[in-house]
């Protein structure tokens, strides 16, 4: 569709502006623009049509099935948005004194209490603004801990090969050398390989449980024991916490640090690049290293302090406060029983779809899954020439979003599905029927997939060209 600048016509516009209710002020000459601001000129009708058309081109969870694996695309209840829009929260300023923002500080204190209860941690910071940002904060806590003890020889971080791609990148960014541990045939960490890697130069391990292929690490207590015996710390990537919340806690698995993805697990907006929030929790012995300021409850009144050996700020002020507020509203709405039910439903839905799809498709790993599962289309590609990418493109014509493609990297021609807890039996059955029909079509008419999608406004963009030569601004012809 045309950009708003392409719709612009000189002289078009609308004169319906409210009356000016403030005193006119003229800016000093040196602050004025030398050239007019280039804004599109459109009539009110054109503006309405443009944004209506733009909205119709967007596909989200409110449009249809959206099973992106490892992304947990949940719905966002409107009550969360209404609470975040309350004047007392929305209109405060982070430079206000503590005594004027007691309600906001109580939100942070209550959120810390609930999320620590869910994770088994003792204290938490809400500064990190996303999952990867939380990872970096957690790894910096590991470094601060070892350095505080004069142990500068711990230079390696262990990361399983099924980890999220940001884990090794984060460890490297923090100055550590990454040691990759292979997965066994069951998709879990190879315990013997872990034992071999756990030397006295290991600072810690970064691990997701359930892991990225949707399988629970049944030897998790053994894993954390091996790392702790080597003198390292255990870091829990909370990307998949929705598969165990209310049932199992990372702290009880002997993890020392955890980050949460509020924009993945606790129903805050996820798409469009944010805003996100990746709070980090830790056990008591690490609390003195947390980024500050942190909120302290002093018997009903609240203040902010800087921990004694804080690693410093990782973001301005208190993080994305309104995102934390949305997550708190979600947790308080569900309560402990609702959180557990949400988890159980997510796992049930994933296993239902996995079992049905296995009638035609090949699972990357056998047995029960947790909240997500991975199919491999390697066999289908060998038989028909239809790749995971081709299959995903064909799904767009079926008015449903494709699953995550080619991830994790350890599975060839991977499709990762996560139906989440909000999908109904009827919707999952409809999705399975579409997958089954396309599976048969791949054998009878593989060329159909090579030219898909056929009904979308954008077909197959040149992704390599887009990455190497991105067009990030509109080029005016004049």
Structure write-up:
It is a single chain. This protein folds into 2 domains: 256 residues, 3-Layer(aba) Sandwich (Aspartate Aminotransferase, domain 2); 130 residues, Alpha-Beta Complex (Aspartate Aminotransferase, domain 1), CATH 3.90.1150.10. The model has no long low-confidence stretch (mean pLDDT 93). Strand 8 and strand 9 form a beta hairpin. The chain is α/β, with parallel strands linked by helices and 478 residues long. The chain has a 7-stranded mixed beta sheet, sandwiched between helices. It contains 16 helices and 13 strands. The longest helix is centred in the last third of the chain and has 37 residues.
Instruction: Give a short account of the largest sheet.
Output: 7 strands, mixed
Query: What is the quaternary state of this protein?
Result: single chain
Mean pLDDT: 93
Fraction of helical residues: 25-40%
What's the CATH H-level homologous superfamily of the largest domain?
Type I PLP-dependent aspartate aminotransferase-like (Major domain)
Number of strands: 13
Pairing-aware structural class of the strands and helices? alpha/beta
Q: Topology of this protein?
A:
Elements (H helix, E strand, L loop, with lengths): L3 H4 L36 H13 L21 H7 L2 H4 L11 H18 L3 E3 L5 H18 L7 E5 L5 H8 L3 E5 L9 H7 L4 E6 L12 H10 L3 E6 L18 E4 L1 H4 L14 E3 L11 E4 L4 E4 L15 H37 L4 E2 L9 E4 L1 H7 L3 H9 L7 E2 L8 E4 L7 H20 L2 H4 L12 H6 L10
Parallel strand pairs: 2-3, 2-4, 4-5, 5-6
Antiparallel strand pairs: 1-7, 6-7, 8-9, 10-11, 11-13, 12-13
Helix pairs in contact: 3-11, 5-11, 6-7, 11-14
